């Protein structure tokens, strides 16, 4: 069974520690710690370190719980949430768009064929459709209908090293996230071209988003621009700020 | 049948206090998480929450989850193996509960060391069940795919979320009653801290 672990390369664990420290600094600096302790724990690096260590323990437990064969529940079309909520780290007025004909997906890292991909090439691959529940880390959820190319199909097509640890996503709205290879190969992890059986709207990530119903919303990147297969821990936009990296459902 | 008087065993005392601190951290960080997307028309004031922001609240929530689960598993195993649950916590009949409840409301309920009255038994058994449901419903909204059967048992993700919140509210209600009662009968608090009663000699409990 494949599961993400700390990088064994010399630099990666150090990098990751650094990232965790940086992001935890923000989270313990405010609010209610004094309620429990009666003293200022906020400047206490031991607390940050302890929380960071527990978070990576929790991430390992999540990876152990994950099964490549366990499927997210699929719903009837009548259950689709309408209108499906817009959500990003910015407001809907700031959504960026690209010309679908000009759009290319950059492919890099541990893959045999690094040529960029056009939408037409994705349309030519087998498609899969799902009606699943999108669950945000904030707690709200919404059911949507997505279809597109299973990521496993694409990774096989470009000759990706499937023993690599991570698949890293970068987006043209400057968002980024990354997932473990086991989740990347999960049958419901899909490179989405259509929402509700029509072309993906700008608000939901046009021209391509990655739908991962086994992970929380922030692990489902929209406005995809580049994909990379790597053994170097890639982090992500929210993950670098303190959200747990695995983010599994 | 006369029996030696019992006070909370070290296992019970240690797991009680680890559990209590974990539970406070769970509640404070849970309120932080709740505030990110409230299901009721109110938010918790930020001074009552733990973690500073959503990601911090989540970090605390899962850290406290491990300590609570650790203490809880030790406590449950000890309670079953030692006979503590069967002997001390098993709820008594409605009549005993009514009698002791009446006494408690008139502040006349005696607290013999090592003997749990019917109100205590009911409250402690109740809060253990509620705590178990809190943990289970929490797991079901954390892992609605990997533990999909559990989410299904709770009626789906949205209902499980509300059950988790309701169980939290019941625990907070219990905490208020529990703390007030412990302060009204400080010898019980002393016993939970030190494992014995403050008085030089308490009368032997005979049942």
TrEMBL record, chain A:
Top-level taxon of origin: Bacteria
Domain Oxidoreductase molybdopterin-binding: from-to ranges: 95-238
Protein name (record): Oxidoreductase molybdopterin-binding protein
UniProtKB/TrEMBL annotation, chain B:
InterPro entries, per the entry: Cyt_b561_bac/Ni-Hgenase (IPR011577), Di-haem_cyt_TM (IPR016174), Hydrogenase_cytochrome (IPR051542)
Keyword Cytoplasm: no
Main location as per UniProt: membrane
BP-aspect Gene Ontology terms: respiratory electron transport chain
Membrane topology: Multi-pass membrane protein
Pfam families: Ni_hydr_CYTB (PF01292)
Classification via Gene3D superfamilies: Transmembrane di-heme cytochromes, Chain C
Locations listed in the record: Cell membrane
Cellular component, GO annotation: plasma membrane
Residue ranges constituting the Cytochrome b561 bacterial/Ni-hydrogenase domain according to the UniProt record: 10-194
Transmembrane segments annotated in the record for this chain: 12-34, 54-77, 122-142, 162-185
Keyword DNA damage tagged: no
Molecular function in Gene Ontology: electron transfer activity; heme binding
Keywords linked to the UniProt accession: Cell membrane, Membrane, Transmembrane, Transmembrane helix
PANTHER family for the chain: CYTOCHROME YDHU-RELATED, NI/FE-HYDROGENASE 1 B-TYPE CYTOCHROME SUBUNIT
Name of the protein this chain belongs to: Cytochrome b/b6 domain-containing protein
Organism of provenance: Gluconacetobacter sacchari
